[in-house]
């Protein structure tokens, strides 16, 4: 089962310890074949909406910075519970904040 884990920006300023712990976590998940992709996301983006035949393109940002998604990890695990445990480990490393886990369907 694949899960997309996203997180919102936090007020915590990263330090060398955080970078080291996160690098170790990422290496562990990569070596185990769990981590498929990870990355940060730009604050703005482009919104494309459609209504009938009309397509509208709008430059971001769209939400308050604290509500935007700041980064993601795509993982392949055996269960939802395993995805939750990985997200718990991530939150312990990065500290206070919010993450969302969503199952990814399709090939």
Automatic annotation (TrEMBL):
InterPro entries: Dimeric_a/b-barrel, YCII. It holds the Pfam family YCII. Transmembrane segments: none annotated. It comes from the Bacteria. Residues 1-90 form the YCII-related domain. Belongs to the YciI family. This is YCII-related domain-containing protein.
């Amino acid at each position: 089962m694949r899960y997309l884990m996203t997180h919102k920006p936090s007020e915590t300023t990263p330090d060398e310890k955080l970078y080291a712990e996160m690098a170790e976590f990422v290496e562990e998940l990569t070596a185990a074949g769990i981590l498929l992709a990870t990355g940060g996301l730009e604050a703005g983006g482009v919104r494309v909406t459609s209504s009938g035949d009309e397509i509208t393109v709008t430059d971001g940002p769209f939400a308050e910075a604290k509500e935007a998604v700041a980064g993601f990890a795509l993982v392949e695990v055996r269960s939802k519970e395993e995805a939750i445990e990985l997200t718990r480990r991530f939150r312990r490393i990065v500290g206070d904040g919010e993450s969302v886990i969503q199952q990814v369907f399709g090939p």
